[in-house]
Amino acid sequence: MVSPAVLFLLFMLGYPFVLAIYLSLTDKRIGADPNFVGLNNFILLAETPRFWRAVQNSLVYTGLALILKFFGGLGLALLLNRQFVGQRLSRAIFLLPWIAPTVFSTLAWWWMFDPSFGVVNVLLKRMGIVQSNIPFLVDPNLAMALLIFVNAWRGIPFFAIVFLAAMQTVSQELLDASKIDGASGWQMLWKVILPLIMPVVLIVMLISTIGTISDFELPFLLTRGGPADATLVFGILTYNYSLESGLYGLGTSVTVTMFPLLALLVIWTLTEIRRDDKVR
Amino acid sequence: MTQSKLALWFRTGISLYAPVIIALLITLFPFYWMFITSLKDSREIFNLQGPILFVQNPTLDNYKYLFESTLFSHWMINSVVIASITTVFSVFVSIIAGYAIARLRFRGASLLAILIFITYLVPKTLLFIPLAQVLSQLQILGEPATLLLTYPTFLIPFCTWLLTGYFRTIPNDLEECARIDGCTRVGAMARITLPLAIPGILTAAIFSFTLSWNDLLYSLAFVNGDANKTLPLGATSSLMVNDYFFWGPLMAASVLASIPVAILYFFFVDLYVGGLTAGAVKG
Fold first, then answer.
1. What's the gap between Cα B263 and its chain centre?
2. pLDDT(B283) > 50
3. Which of A59, A155, B26, B179 has its CA 20 to 30 A from that of A104?
């Protein structure tokens, strides 16, 4: 019964995966046959400053976005865990950024932060907060900050809704007991709730880390890797080499360099979760 | 007494309603701005004076432009057809696989579950180049059909993972009772487990549809020809020309592209949240 899924995945995912590793060891270009070149692509990448820029940017992007998504998701989950007027409607609205098509919500953010005509600058100036336009998307640091912000805006709802569901499985008796023992709200969160929902937290962080470090759509639309490579991440560099320059071998090798890191992360997370399951 | 009540109200306002309202504003403003911009004519879009947050002279010109001067209706139809077919196919395959992993005791079932989850983690950016090779060997590179073959590669792993988790939350006893009463395994699955799994199945379906609907990278890499494009690719390639962006039509396209997903989602929001979290928490 599993075989249709397994066969399909073997052919369309397993085989391409192996092919990716093979291609990364060749000089495959568009319209030409691949020649085996060993580790040449990786040596070339190691000597290319742009590659190291992409490594650095991807790590900064992923690290900061994950921190924002974790705390933002936790905060939103704690808010939604309380009773308030309009709670159900708010919960539905808060999920919108996550389900809306990324391409189009990203365009809306760009349009809002457009350096000359964006509404954000207009409003900031009218409120007297700034005198002249802030060069969002033009200044390298601001561009990266905006990229991280939009990624978090999109990701926080998913974190929040999963954290919320996990929190609601924590037994009320346990919380009452810790309250009687004199735990403060913060202590209950950090010492009781979080450790109990750790497996779920780890899974969500894992999915999001891999999605963010290999992200293409958001940086491609918002900044195209610029200005001056300030937001050049793995996905964009691969796109530059392969679809733009036709260097498929070199393009693949960029993504293959991500793989050891991702594999370690997956193995570490899954063993952590298993250990957690056994402890219980 | 009244004073302490007032103080309590004040504290709830600060600690609960203020953050909720700020978060709602940040969540909704981009959608509001998308909608408002789509109704402005190009003079008003670039006019920074006046009440910028509202429309002065609402017009549907941007929407008209999409349908008259671009192949928007083609892109919309392509997106609907491709997202629907890949969703039905992927959910069907995943129901069977998820059910088998959750229920049948065969060797390596738990290992298989982990492996399928791991395949979900293989990034699109790693796969699109070799997939292009495979598609060109199949001699379909450039055609919309490529997306029918490639979208399930990221839909099936997630749906199978989610549905496996969901099937595990449905007690096996029910099915065993039905089988004692003379139901076959397939009969018990179809009559007992599947109806109970509808929230999970709908979640998987909505999720699949949205993921297909949102893709840009695969259609960018695999599809040629303006009429063959999907919505995200069509809109970004035709309305963002070099450094000139047609913001009015772009925002109109964004509104039209977001509406189907939003409707789908608002209809099923409770089921969706329930299904997603059951799968993720127990899976």
1. 12
2. no
3. A59
pLDDT of A235 strictly over 50: yes
| Residue pLDDT, tens place only, B108-132 | 777 888 888 888 888 899 899 999 9
CATH superfamily of A50-233+264-279: MetI-like (1.10.3720.10)
Q: Which domain holds residue B16?
A: 2-59
Tell me if B220 and A91 make a contact (CB, 8 A cut-off). no
CA neighbor of B82 nearest in space, from B204, B200, B210: B210
Judgement on whether residues B98 and B48 belong to the same structural domain of the protein = no
pLDDT digits over B30-66, tens only?
999 999 999 998 888 888 887 888 888 888 999 999 9
Domain boundary (B34, B59, B84) is at: B59
Q: What residues contact A173, with CB distance under 8 A and at least 6 apart?
A: none
Q: Which residues of B touch A223 (CB under 8 A)?
A: none
What's the complex ipTM? 0.89
Chain A interface includes B196 (CB < 8 A):
no
Q: At what angle do helices B247-267 and B72-103 cross, to 10 degrees?
A: 30
User: Is B67 buried (19+), middle (13-18) or exposed (0-12) by CB count in 10 A?
Assistant: middle
